[in-house]
Amino acid sequence: TLRALIFDVDGTLADTERDGHRVAFNRAFADAGLPWNWSVEQYGTLLDVTGGKERIQHYVKTYEPTFAVPGGDLKQFAAALHAGKTEHYKQLLKDAVIPLRPGVKRLLLTAREQGLRLAIATTTTPANVTALLQSSLSPESLSWFEVIAAGDIVPLKKPAPDIFDYALEKLDLAPEECFAFEDSGQGLKSALGAGLRTVITLNEYTRLHDFTGASFVLSDLGEPDAPFEAIAGDVGN
Ligand code: XBP
Ligand code: MG
Predict the structure, then answer these.
(1) pLDDT of res. 236
(2) Which among 2, 98, 130, 156 has most CB atoms closer than 10 A?
(3) ipTM reported for the complex, 2 dp
(4) What CATH architecture does domain 4-15+98-232 belong to?
(5) What UniProt keywords are attached to this protein's entry (predicted)?
């Protein structure tokens, strides 16, 4: 029996990467007086590395190999930059709502009506999940999710299965009792590694990823009442 749905956040609940995270990284770089600016296109390549702190470290090693790291410790430097990035991301979501993807709200509401349990398994920082749900869904929507597994709660990020394993353990459910919702190849690998059936919704950054093993690969979750949502401007409450 199906008992729970486990959701990825970035790219699955909302298209947060291009106009959210990417912009926040660039603002943090500017604050630190760094001349780095990640373009929409380059960010697509950088997304291969999951986790913002890990992404910054990867960027420096790959594209700025001669950069003299202040303090000499790249991990520490990336963590400090990333803390600034998180502040910018939260502020961005306060200034402008990034809408949930089509059909996400309907699916969450329907699942709740039917007594399905909800959880989140994401690589993103916990504060980002809170900020997104509060601004794009509703202040009380955080409580809809029984488990919010996020960020550094497990040492190995996606594509490792650890974050989904963790969510399953907290739900006290077997993978056969759940479905995962993902948008990326790394996310799918992570969910499959945890034994989960997975629904993929594609986006601009992930549409060419390898989705072998997914139960469904969909453009989005917007059918059948997407036109209604569009008319009603169904964002927020
Ligand atoms: C999302 C990520 C995150 C975000 C940025 O992956 O990889 O790193 O890009 O958030 P997923 P942070 O959708 O698979 O969870 O900067 O907080 O890491
Ligand atoms: Mg994602």
Answers:
(1) 37
(2) 98
(3) 0.94
(4) 3-Layer(aba) Sandwich (3.40)
(5) Hydrolase
